Amino acid sequence: MQDSRYSQLIQAADLIAYGAFHKHAQDYPGVWVGIRPVPGAIRAYMKTCSHWVPNSENGIIWLE
Question: For residue range 27-47, what is the model confidence (pLDDT) as tens digits?
Fold first, then answer.
C-alpha cells in the first residue's frame, strides 16, 4: 500500500475487522467450520468495547 494520510486509518480499520471476524468465529464455530480463532486478535478487539454502539452484538450491527 502506498503511504497516504489515510493509510494508518485503513490499517486500523482492517485490524479491528480482523478481530471482529475472529471473535465471531469463536462465538459461532458452526458457521466458521475449520477456522481457528486467533486469541490475540480477539483480546485486542475486545479492548475496543468502550467504543461499541449500545445494543450491538460485540460491536457488530447486522443489516438485513
Answer: 999 999 999 999 999 999 999
